[in-house]
Amino acid sequence: ETHGITFRIQINVKELLDTDVLLKLLFHLPVNYPSTLPDISVSSDQLTRAQCTDVKDKLLEQAKKHLSEPMVHDLILWIQQHLNYVIKQSATVCHEKTTLSKGTSTEDGIWMLLLHLDHMRAKAKYIKTVEKWASDLRLTGRLMFMGKIILILLQGDKSNIKEYLVLQKTSKVDVDSSGKKCKEKMISVLCETKVQAQQKRFQTFEVKEYSTLDELQKEFETAGLTTLFSEFVPPLLK
Fold it and tell me: Which listed site, 2, 100, 151, 173, has its alpha carbon 20 to 30 Å from 128?
């Protein structure tokens, strides 16, 4: 009677890159609800902490429009319909902040990630998804095909590299043998390290195919990554 009611709701939203996003919503309804706004908490394993905060802020904005009337059901319907938009807006704000702080040096510096994929069944869709993630997270590098070898080489802020890995491991990016959407299970993190002074920064993210191992090696050498190539790529041919 004095503290109100608290309850949890879990909803699946299937908007974001064809991925199931499980939102965990916590509503605390004060005694004088709905004349007073509820407290809302948002969490999700598929979203970053900043994105969860943005979802909560948008829900509170919507709640103000329903003040003095029951609103929880309307809020749930609204976020189910608008989650994709909220996440895109969150990415835009994040990019603006990154651009503003570009001139200042960060403690983490620029990081690099080298991934090996076993296969791509839905190749065109998979490539499009990787390109979108790289763009959204301001990552540069290469998606490289050479025979049966598939490599993803990324450079960017450490936090964005980490976020890319989460997306890569938790999103349904490919299809299984029956054509059903599935998560990437055959992925290996070959290397995750800070970019050194002698190594060059990629300016863009590109998808490239190579006819020979020599061509692939030259791509690494041009970027000052000869050691990275010799340590991790030849063993993949065995």
Answer: 100
Q: pLDDT, tens digit, for every residue of 154-203? A: 999 888 888 888 888 777 766 666 667 766 666 788 888 888 877 778 88
CA-wise closest residue to 110 among 208, 223, 222: 223
Residue 7 main-chain phi, psi, to 5 deg: -150, 155
All structural domains of the chain? 5-91 (3.10.110.10), 110-236 (3.30.70.100)
Can you give the pTM of this predicted structure? 0.53
Nearest to 136 by CA among 93, 105, 188, 104: 93
Nearest to residue 216, comparing CAs of 204, 230, 197? 230
Evaluate if residue 107 carries a pLDDT over 90: no
> Residue 47: what are its φ and ψ, rounded to 5°?
-115, 155
CA 147/CA 162 separation, integer angstroms: 28
Backbone angles phi, psi at 68, to 5 degrees: 75, 10
Ramachandran region, residue 35 (left: φ > 0; alpha: ψ -120 to 50; beta: rest)? alpha
